[in-house]
Amino acid sequence: MNISVCKLELRLPENESLKGKRQVIQSIITRLQNRYNVSVAEVDNQDLWQRATLGITCVSNHRKHANEILSSVVNFVAQNYPDVEMLSSEIEAFSAF
What we know:
Layout: E1 2-11, H1 18-36, E2 39-44, E3 51-60, H2 63-80, E4 85-95
């Protein structure tokens, strides 16, 4: 079993409130879950209205496949959310069992 984890640090420069941030982040989370069948959660910067950190995980039989899915997730966010600036993205893979 292979587990890949992605950490996305995002900046929302046009956002003006926590409510607006929640709308944008919830849209991203829902679309990623539906499109890629990954687990997604906001894991840091919950109190900052122009910053968000998302944790995304994927479990697969093959490490390469899990990493490809998370790379696709990163590209999807970059291409489909032009108002969101991606500050950093990190992908790590772990083997279990």
